[in-house]
Write a structure and sequence with these properties.
This protein has helices spanning 18-29, 41-54, 70-84, 109-136, 158-178, 196-209, 213-222, 232-242, and strands at residues 9-13, 33-38, 60-64, 89-92, 140-145, 183-190, 254-257. It has 263 residues and is of the alpha/beta class. Strand 5 (140-145), helix 5 (158-178) and strand 6 form a beta-alpha-beta unit.
Length: 263
């Protein structure tokens, strides 16, 4: 551990899998106490034990939480504050994809509302209930996960794209509200990122288009300046920077981690 975050505490939603797990590992390596939240209790407990084994001298609290249920979020934030005595960082990585390759006229209304719930409400509620603790700590940082689909339109993904634009708006609004309390609020915008979620998207796109998954992967990669996919650790590294002292004057911004897609 380099212990640059020793003595500080972070809450990470979606913290046992995907980008959230990569963030949790990096912040644990930096010495932070961490609460990881999610719906898969077994995965949370296993990952917390793994982090504590590899990064001793600090601890990880697994908390089952559905981020769209306010009572769950209240209890999760309270548990983290009680365990660590403070909250200095909140990283919202919990989210979903919604229908894939579905034009707007075929997009079910309940699915549209569902993706707004998990991606927007599920980002707002942890912010709402962590803010008093961040103020009490004398400052801190919030990092949300938006996406490059929140920087441009995203054909056949209207619900998902709308949700990621909303996360950007929420981020900028909170940055204005919390700046006087020395709390920075930013979002990271990953492009296509290797992992289980992207595998599902590629498979569905291949089925709809009649192409092979390999062709779909190649097409996605060719759209970037660097000609490759983003890795989960790349997104986590951006989060790591945004919660560090080096980013103390960066707030209200969208940080693309996109291998040069949006250029």
């Amino acid at each position: 551990m380099n212990e640059s975050l020793a003595g500080k505490a972070a809450v990470i939603t979606g913290g046992a899998k995907g980008i959230g797990a990569a963030v949790a590992e990096m912040l644990a390596a930096d010495g932070a106490q961490i609460a990881i939240a999610g719906r898969d209790e077994e995965a949370l407990e296993k990952y917390a034990a793994s982090l504590d084994e590899r990064y001793s001298g600090r601890s990880t609290l697994p908390v089952r939480c559905d981020v769209t249920v306010e009572d769950d979020v209240v209890a999760m934030i309270a548990a983290a504050a009680e365990r660590f005595g403070r909250i200095d960082m909140l990283v919202n990585t919990a989210g979903g994809t919604g229908p894939i390759e579905t034009p707007a006229e075929a997009y079910p209304a309940d699915a549209f509302m569902g993706i707004l719930q998990i991606n927007v409400l599920g980002t707002f509620l942890p912010c709402k209930h962590a803010i008093p603790h961040l103020k009490r700590a004398g400052g801190g940082s919030i990092v949300n996960i938006s996406g490059t689909s929140g920087l441009r339109g995203y054909r056949n993904r209207s619900g998902y794209s709308a949700s990621k634009w909303a996360v950007r708006g929420l981020t900028r609004t909170l940055a204005l509200e919390l700046g006087p309390y020395d709390i920075t609020v930013n979002d990271v915008c990953p492009n296509v990122t290797n992992g289980e979620r992207m595998s599902r998207i590629v498979q569905k796109k291949a089925e709809v288009s009649g192409r092979s998954p390999e062709d779909v992967y190649s097409d996605f990669a060719s759209q970037t300046a660097l000609g490759r996919f983003v890795e989960e650790r790349d997104v986590a590294a951006a989060v790591r920077f945004l919660v560090s002292e080096g980013a103390r004057n960066i707030t209200g911004h969208d940080i693309p981690v996109d291998a040069g897609w949006d250029v």
